[in-house]
Structure formats: C-alpha cells, structure tokens
Amino acid sequence: MKPYVQMDAKMNAKPDNRRKKPQNAKLAWKGLWQELLKVKKAVFIIILFSVCTAFIGTYAPWLSGEITDLLYDGIVIGDGIDFKVFYRSLITLALLYIATYLINYFRRVFTVTAIQEIAISLRMRLGRKINRLPMSYFDKTHKGDILSRITNDIDTINSSLQHCLTSLINATLMMLMIAFTLFRLNVILAILIVFIMPVSLLLSRNLLKISQRLARGRQAAMGDLNAHIEETYSANIIIKSFGGKETVSADFNAKNNELRQVSRRADILSGFFRPITNLVSDLVFVAVCVLSGIFILQGKLSLGNMQTITQYARRFAHPVSEVASFANTIQSTLAAYERVNNFLNEAEQPADCADAIDPEQVKGEIEFRNVTFDYEGTPVLNNVSFSIKPGQKVALVGNTGSGKTTLMKLLLRFYDPQHGEILIDGVSNKKYKQKRLHKIFGVVMQDIWLSDSMIKENIAYAEMNYDMEDVKAAAKSAHAHRFISLLPEGYDHEVKNGGEEFSHGQRQLLTIARAIFRKPEVLLLDEATSSVDARTELLIQRIMDKFMKGRTSLVIAHRLSTIRSSDLILVMQDGKIVEQGNHEELLAKEGYYYQLHESQFADCL
Q1: What DSSP assignment string belongs to 247-294?
Q2: pTM of the entire structure?
Q3: Are strands 522-526 and 441-444 parallel, antiparallel or unpaired?
Q4: Distances 386 to 359, 389, 576 between C-alpha atoms, Å
Q5: In sequence order, what E strands does 330-474 have?
Q6: Distance CA 552, CA 20 (A)
Q7: Which CA distances in Å does 136 have to 9, 370, 415?
Q8: Is the confidence at residue 43, as pLDDT, over 80?
C-alpha cells in the first residue's frame, strides 16, 4: 500500500473512545464545581432555599408530634386541651407546608436558570473550540462523535444537574438536621437510625465503580451511534444507489444493540441501589417501632415523640435512598463532563506569533522551500521545492494521492510541515496573522459546501458587513445571477440541505461567486470542474480564466485539457515533483506528464 493511501486510512480511522483510560473522577468533580462557581449567586440562593426546606422538613414532624402529645394529654390523660395552642400549631403546620411548596417552586426556577447558564456556556465554549482545532483533529474524529459531545453530553449534564443539584443539597442538609434532632430526642434510637442506615451506602460502594465504567461506555456507544446516523444521512443517495440499505441497517442494529446492552447493564446495576437502601430502611423502621413501643411502656418516650421519631426514620431513609439512586446519574454526568472536558482540552491550532504581520497588500508570490510533511509518521511530501511568481497560473497534476491537495492545505496552514518552509511574498506563512492569511486565498473545492442560509449570505460568507451590489457583481461574474434572479426570493432564497434543490453546476457557480466576492490575491482551485458536465465545465473555465488574469492561481486538475494554458505545470508523483514546465515543454520531454496526456487522449479515442 502506498504511503498516501495509508495516510488517508489513518485520517479517516474511527476513534475508539472506550479504549481511552478514564480521567480521575476527582478531576471531573472539580471541573463541575468550577462550572457551578460561575453561577455562585444562584447556587447560594439554591442552598439558602434548601436550608429552609430542610428546616421545615425537620420541624414539621416535631410539631406534629407535639400536636399528638397535646391531644393525648388532653383526651386520654384528661388534662384538657389548650385549643389556642392546638389551633396555632395546626395553622403553623399548614403554613409550613405551603411555604415548602413556594420555596421549592422558586428553588426550581433558580436551579433551571443556573444550570441552563452552565449548559449555554459549555456549548459556546465548544463552539469556539471547534474553530480553534487543527485539521488533524477532524481527520481522526467522526463528526457524529463531536456532535454527540455538543448535544447528548451537554444535555446529560444539564438534566442531571437540574435533578441532582437541589436534591443532593437538600438531602444532605435534611440528614444533618434530622440526625441532630434525633439525638436530642433519644440517643439509642438516633444511633440505630443514623449509623445503621448508611450501611446501605456501604453495600453499594463497590457497585459505584462498575457503574462509572458502564456510564462512560454508554456515552461512548451513544457517540458511535450518532456518528453512524450522521454518516448515513449525509450519504443517503450513495447508500440507495448501491443498494446498501441492508448493510447500513445491519451496522445500525449492531451499534444500537451495543448501546442497548451497555445501557441495560448500567440501568440494571443502578436499580440495585434503591432496593438495597429500601431494605435497610424497612428493617430499621421495624426496629425503631419495636424499641419505641418498649420505651413508651417504660415511660422513657411519649407517643408524640414516637410519631416524630418514626417520621424522622422515614425521612432520614428517603434522602439516603435518594443519594444512592442518584449514584448512577452522577456517574453518567461525570462521564459526560469528562468527554466535554477532553474536547475542550484538545491541542489547538498554533496561535499567531508575537510579531505576526497583517499587510494591506499581498503580491501573491509563493515559494515552497524543501518542504517535507508526514502525517503521524507516514510520508506524504518529500523535499518539495518550487516558486510561483505574482500573477502566474500554476497547475498541479498527478495521480490521486500524490500530494497535490496536501500542498494546498499546507499553504493555507491547515498543517505545518516538519521540515522546510512556505513563503508568501518572501515571508513565512507562519509569520502572517491567520485571519489575514486566509483572506489572501480564494478557494474553490471539488467538494461543494453551502450553508443553510440565504444565497447572499453564502456568497458573502464570513463577512459581517457587506454591500449587496458587491454580492450581485460577484454572482454576475460567476454567471450565477441569472438562475438566482429566477428564484421567487432571489438573493434572499434560503438554501436548504446544502443546496440540494440546485444542480451540481449551479452550486459550483455559487462557490465560485463566493471566491470572487472575496477578491483574493491568490486563487486556489481543487478539481473545481471534475463533477460537472462538459458545457458547464467550459463555462466555468471561461469564468475562471477571466478572473485569474493578473492574479496568482494554483490549480489542481486531472483533466489536462483544462490546464494547457498554464504558465507552469508541476507534475507530482508519490509526494515529489518529478517534472515541471509548460504544456509544450513537458510533452517534448516525453516523461510522466506525456504518459498522463497520452492515457487521457487514448481514453478519449
């Protein structure tokens, strides 16, 4: 297998997220805590509300026990009922429950608002991160996996924090307050409830590690499934054309079953937490009832105290059970945050150097000086050197994978060579500010991309403030104005699904108009006419010939008929320039270019 084919295989290899070692859970907790600190005012209010509900949840059983003792003393013992105290206690108890409802409502509002702010912040950071990542990251990462981090993982963090944050805070405060009150009522029963109940958590401790691993596996499997769905949707025409429905369905079923299996194991395991805590809770409750009855008979406990303690036993078991039931959710949250955090910590495209330049004018002189580039140890370009004078039209020809497109990517600084340098007007492309560097070039690729926005926004892509007359002038120069004007909305027409409603040639004309609109100093054409019919190709060729006059141009073409008029033709083979000259000179040499020319001519015959 040739080196460039190996490189393509590596660049398109599917990442196996599940093979990566998981990050320390403490780091994930620390990261989540830092996210919460960004909304610390809201978190403080949430904690304050939780303190209030925990206090009410502790005081209400105490008050109901006092009401029971008041009735028992008045009716059974015969001391009489103080109805003022009785009614006041009932009203207080009712107001406490109403207050609990209102506090929980406002706590929910603050929680949702705060967590949504965190989710929005994470999505914005992920969005900015995408624009700062090097091309090498996208070469080895599936789009669906990136999409899964921005959607599923963020949604997991969002929903989990909304449900867990207030519940965990409230449960912790409730346990502390109930424990304190229990010890004031009866030390023996308090020890039974407070120290025996957490045994359920200890029984579940070993299950947490397995749960954490399964949670990570579930998030990774979901990312793989999303990647497959995205890939299937984008290649829908090819799949149907080649009758690949069964193959795609089988792959989908396999990935879906994998997700089902890991989700089933994770959910079954998480189902053990609540039964364990409920079992311990029921056993403790029975023990409390028996001991309380004995203490009442011994005169060490009142009936109201027994009612209060039994309520506390249930209420203490509830937060313990709640904490345990959230264990799997918390592990999923940590796993999701790890994936998001890993993405945010990916190495970024090198920043502009301190002395980066931003020249107003660029002549368009280009020089590759002893450039060698390999991708992860696989050679792609080997000691490539050539120069292009301002205004020259230079063509790159050669077999597929010979390194032609890689030259353009290095010129745009999507990658940096391991050896050698690339000069623009005698200055290394590393010395240019990246924003200015990309404005130097107008790019028309073989793979057409249009955004789902208005036609005028596609032509003036990435320009915030643009003149509509310039947009129309670019469209007219690209011979796209006519078919745009026939649309009901004209330049305000919304492009859908990458412009599938247009023909391939019309879409290509729009990309050419986009390049013309930028008025670049250097034009890069990568097989711009390889997928259009002969008539459209001739039209595009005339457009580009007119636009390339006086402008440095670098053209990649397999059809040699389209580059005969080039000032310089660079012939590439296996990452090297093996011949260079104009069309007549190369034919006269009867070398590799001559063989390519003859093979195409023979095909035509």
Answers
A1: HHHHHHHHHHHHHHHHHHHHHHHHTTHHHHHHHHHHHHHHHHHHHHHH
A2: 0.67
A3: parallel
A4: 23, 10, 11
A5: 366-375, 378-388, 393-398, 419-424, 427-428, 441-444
A6: 46
A7: 13, 22, 8
A8: yes
Task: Identify the architecture of domain 25-344 in CATH.
Answer: Up-down Bundle (1.20)
Cβ 181 vs Cβ 62: under 8 Å: yes
Tell me if 79 sits within 8 A of 198, measured CB to CB: no
Using DSSP bridges, classify how beta strands 419-424 and 427-428 pair: parallel, antiparallel or unpaired: antiparallel
Q: What tens digit of pLDDT does each residue of 194-218 get?
A: 877 666 666 665 666 666 677 777 8
Of the candidates 283, 417, 340, 276, the residue with the CA atom closest to the CA atom of residue 28? 340
Cα–Cα distance, 303 to 244 (Å, whole number) = 75
Cα 605 from Cα 603, distance rounded (Å): 5
Residue with tokens 């579940």: 204
Q: Among 388-392, 560-564, 575-579, where is mean pLDDT lowest?
A: 560-564
Residue 229 CB neighbour total at 10 angstroms: 16
**Residue boundaries of the structural domains of the chain:** 25-344, 366-604
- Scan for tokens 């506390």, then name that residue: 312
Q: Quick: pLDDT tens for 371-426.
A: 999 887 788 899 999 999 999 999 998 887 788 888 988 998 888 899 999 999 99
Mean pLDDT of the region 24-31: 79
The helix (run of H) or strand (run of E) holding residue 45 is helix 40-71
Query: What gap in Å lies between CA 545 and CA 404, rounded to an integer?
Result: 21
Whole-angstrom Cα distance, residue 442 to residue 438? 8
Closest CA to 394 of 515, 551, 547, 539: 551
Q: Mention the CATH class of domain 366-604.
A: alpha beta
Which structure tokens are listed for 565?
Answer: 């008029």
- Give 473-525 as a 3 state SS string: HHHHHCCCHHHHHCCCCHHHCECCCCCCCCCHHHHHHHHHHHHHHHCCCEEEE
Instruction: Name the residue among 528, 64, 107, 466 with its Cα closest to residue 303.
Output: 64
Q: CA triplet 295, 296, 297: central angle to 5 degrees?
A: 90
Contact 407, 575 (CB under 8 A): no
Instruction: Please check whether residue 515 is in contact with residue 477, taking contact to mean a CB–CB distance below 8 angstroms.
Output: no
* Token pair belonging to 315: 């209420």
Nearest CA-CA partner of 41 in 105, 114, 102: 114
Q: How far apart are CA 460 and CA 474, in angstroms?
A: 9
319: number of Cβ within 10 Å: 22
pLDDT of residue 203: 63
Q: How far is CA 347 from the centre of its chain?
A: 15
**Cα gap 365→387, rounded to integer Å:** 8
pLDDT tens-place string over residues 338-384: 888 888 888 888 888 888 898 988 899 999 999 999 887 788 899 99
The residue type of 100 is: T
Same topology for domains 25-344 and 366-604, yes or no?
no
CB 428 within 8 A of CB 421: yes
From residue 581, alpha-carbon distances to 332, 388, 544, 570, 591 in Å are 61, 12, 21, 7, 12
